[in-house]
């Protein structure tokens, strides 16, 4: 586990060592720590927009003694898996896509904070987008995290709904269906404060999308 | 009954004055001040104004951890008369952003409002050599010189030493546009001296005179 202080020290070291400016987005528990929603996280999830910047960080981390780990152990046969680099902490490094989610331009525009550690520039995605990245996974920890985000911030549900539709355009997945499943589970099992009309709205969008897909099955879309 | 911090945050979320806080929490003004101080210490409140202006409190349920030092927007908002509103919080970790570097960064941003607001930073410059150093590094020496002359037309700015001015003037092979395709109707003389195009007209600088 790593806390915000240790994460800052680690980013500080990377920023000092790296030779040119590189930018990436922080998601997951690492991002939640910047919002004060979590005290510690087990891994640092970073998303890069370009391969060159990502390669630079991977190279540096290897120089610092981080060892590459087999992705299959954690992500089985999933697509868009990260490069895993481990020492005392683990870095999960993604390139543009986070398993079933794409780091979209709209997500990038909603960046809430930018932290500059010398040559390492860390951008923190918005709480709404943190929920989006968590809704297409099956991990119980992600549900707990999403609940914590909802408790600690005033969620703009419109952003989440629009982004889920946008994700359905960018990925082969019926994203609003994922979202509906995810939020319904949070409401029923974890008693999350999600307005009923929001769930109804997402249900309607999901049904329309499913209906459209059934009418036009040629368009490659999958549910899992 | 004493309310929990989360309940207070829920009620106060958004922009408030102290009177509004007292009204929302149904407490006296003194208690409201105490409550808001408590929340501020925990990192849920940002303040604006004070002095001649009424103090405004922005309460957020999300605690933004303020690590490091202010970034470009923070520096501009601290020193310039023209303030910027940003959707994100920019912080610099491990060092402080100097005013000299902030000016160069503002130019590099190529954003109209950022460059306009950065003109207000010229009167805070103490080290002209440092400004030259950053301008040289980013190859924006003529642009810095032109914007310095422009700032002197609007606000009170210390005189740049002649050595720095000549060094800036002697810069070669630099881009002519500060912002692509934008030229000034009013500052032709500055444009001629520095061989760069100023993206502002007199009307844009009016806000510095208010």
Structure overview:
The complex is a heterodimer of chains A (224) and B (210). In chain A, the strands form 3 sheets. Chain A has a 7-stranded mixed sheet with strand order 5-6-7-4-2-11-10. The two termini of chain A are 30 Å apart. By secondary structure, chain A is α+β, with helices and mostly antiparallel strands. In chain A, 51% of the residues lie in helices and 19% in strands. By secondary structure, chain B is mainly alpha-helical. In chain B, the strands form 2 sheets. In chain B, strands 1-3-2 form a 3-stranded antiparallel sheet. Chain B has a two-stranded antiparallel ribbon with strand order 4-5. The mean pLDDT of chain B is 91. The interface between A and B is medium-sized, with 27 and 21 residues. β10 of chain A pairs parallel with β5 (89-93) of chain B, so a sheet runs across the interface.
In summary, what is this structure?
Chain A is α+β, with helices and mostly antiparallel strands.
From the structure above, extract its key features.
heterodimer, A: 224 residues, alpha+beta, Beta Polymerase, domain 2, 2 domains, 7-stranded mixed β-sheet, two-stranded antiparallel ribbon, globular, B: 210 residues, mainly alpha, Arc Repressor Mutant, subunit A, 3-stranded antiparallel β-sheet, two-stranded antiparallel sheet, 10 helices, 11% strand, elongated
């Amino acid at each position: 586990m790593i806390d915000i202080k240790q994460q800052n020290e680690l980013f500080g070291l990377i920023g000092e060592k790296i030779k040119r400016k590189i930018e990436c987005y922080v998601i997951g528990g690492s991002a939640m720590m910047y919002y004060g929603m979590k005290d510690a996280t087990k891994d640092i999830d970073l998303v890069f927009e370009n391969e060159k910047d990502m390669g630079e960080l991977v190279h540096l981390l290897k120089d610092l003694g981080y060892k590459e780990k087999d992705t299959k152990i954690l992500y089985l046969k999933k697509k868009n898996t990260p490069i895993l680099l481990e020492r005392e902490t683990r870095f999960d490094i993604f390139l543009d896509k986070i398993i079933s989610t794409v780091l979209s331009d709209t997500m990038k525009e909603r960046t809430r904070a930018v932290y500059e550690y010398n040559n390492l520039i860390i951008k923190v995605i918005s709480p709404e987008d943190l929920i989006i990245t968590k809704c297409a996974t099956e991990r119980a920890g992600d549900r707990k995290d999403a609940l914590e985000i909802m408790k600690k911030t005033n969620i703009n549900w419109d952003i989440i709904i629009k982004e889920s539709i946008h994700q359905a355009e960018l990925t082969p997945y019926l994203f609003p269906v994922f979202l509906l499943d995810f939020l319904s589970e949070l409401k029923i099992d974890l008693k999350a404060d999600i307005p009923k009309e929001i769930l109804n709205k997402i249900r309607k969008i999901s049904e329309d999308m499913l209906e459209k897909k059934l009418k036009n099955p040629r368009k490659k879309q999958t549910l899992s | 009954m004493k309310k929990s911090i989360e309940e207070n945050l829920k009620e106060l979320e958004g922009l408030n004055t102290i009177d509004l806080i007292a009204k929302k929490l149904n407490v006296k003004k003194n208690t409201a001040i105490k409550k808001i101080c408590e929340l501020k210490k925990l990192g849920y409140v940002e303040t604006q104004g004070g002095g001649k202006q009424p103090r405004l409190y922005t309460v957020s349920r999300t605690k933004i951890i303020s690590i490091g030092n202010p970034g470009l927007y923070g520096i501009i908002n601290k020193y310039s008369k023209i303030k910027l509103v940003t959707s994100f919080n920019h912080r610099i970790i491990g060092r402080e952003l100097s005013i000299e570097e902030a000016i160069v960064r503002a130019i590099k941003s190529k954003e109209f409002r950022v460059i306009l607001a950065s003109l207000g930073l010229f009167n805070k410059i103490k080290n002209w050599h440092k400004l030259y150093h950053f301008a040289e590094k980013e190859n924006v020496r003529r642009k810095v010189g032109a914007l310095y002359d422009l700032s002197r037309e609007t606000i009170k700015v210390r005189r740049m030493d002649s050595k720095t001015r000549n060094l800036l003037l002697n810069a070669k092979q630099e881009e002519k546009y500060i912002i692509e395709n934008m030229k000034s109707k009013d500052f032709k003389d500055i444009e001629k001296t520095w061989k760069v195009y100023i993206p502002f007209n007199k009307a844009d600088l009016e806000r510095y005179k208010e």
